[in-house]
Amino acid sequence: MILVTGGTGLVGAHLLLHLLENGAKVRAIYRDEKGIQKTKSLFQHYKKPALFDAVEWVQGDILNIPSLEHAFIDITKVYHCAALISFDPKDENKLRKINIEGTANIVNFCLAKGVEKLCHVSSTSALGDLAAHETIITEETEWNPEKYHSDYAISKYGAEMEIWRGQQEGLKVIIVNPGVIIGPGFEDQGSGQLIKKVADGLLFYTYGKTAFVAVNDVVRIMIELMESSICNERFILIGQNIVFRDLFNTIADTLKVKRPSIEARPFLIKLTWIFYWFLNLFFRKSNNVSKDTLQSLLNNKEFSNQKIKTALQTSFTDIHQYIRENFSAN
Q1: What is the pTM of this model?
Q2: What region holds the NAD-dependent epimerase/dehydratase domain (predicted)?
């Protein structure tokens, strides 16, 4: 039996679908019925509603030890997809608790219950920082604690430390570090929010750059790694490093809406953050646009996917084509 945490999120829901398509017996943790309905809607999106009924759902929480006791009965492999993604400074404690303490709980149960192998979904945010002589981030790029990192990045880096602790205690592990994951469903999360903003008439673009990957590639590679003899390794999973302007244009053209037409230069990014900060301070408006989020639009980080391509002889979906195929306005 395979256990999936985070089965009500973008990666976890797609992972459940792929595992069931391959005939696996799967158990998934859920916190409330609302989350299950999102996963059910995704199965319906792919016209596979019957497979949804094959998931064994167990109500629980990665921070609730008693609930995990039941979830881990007869489990041989674990995919740990559950995490909090937030760049709001107010969520610092929640990020550390869910992403670090929650991962520690999963590792401890895997060790106690004799789980064969654990796959942890991390993030490119947890990767290292480029030195002066380096130009592209790889799995070997070293984390520099003296450089600034968002609370989210620190929490994901801390979660990876828990995974490596488990490995040192005898657990076979795999860590994957996806870029920004693009996939249908879950419009209120991650790339879904990005696509919605373009659909709603986003005016601004930047020439910043980051890494993107199709969700189907992420879950396919996770399964291949777990079924292989490869263990105790981490792999960057990215399809392409893409300039935000190019990505926004592809999304706009696919949705048949107007392309963003105003370049957001650094001073405008700073003014935007100050504006939202004042809204939050004086009017108690929820600040869902953080300084870290805005700053990321100006970054020009490049990531390498060569290690996973060599290990599995795999290739990645073209992101622009994936968007055109999965988000068409028809």
Answers
A1: 0.90
A2: 2-228
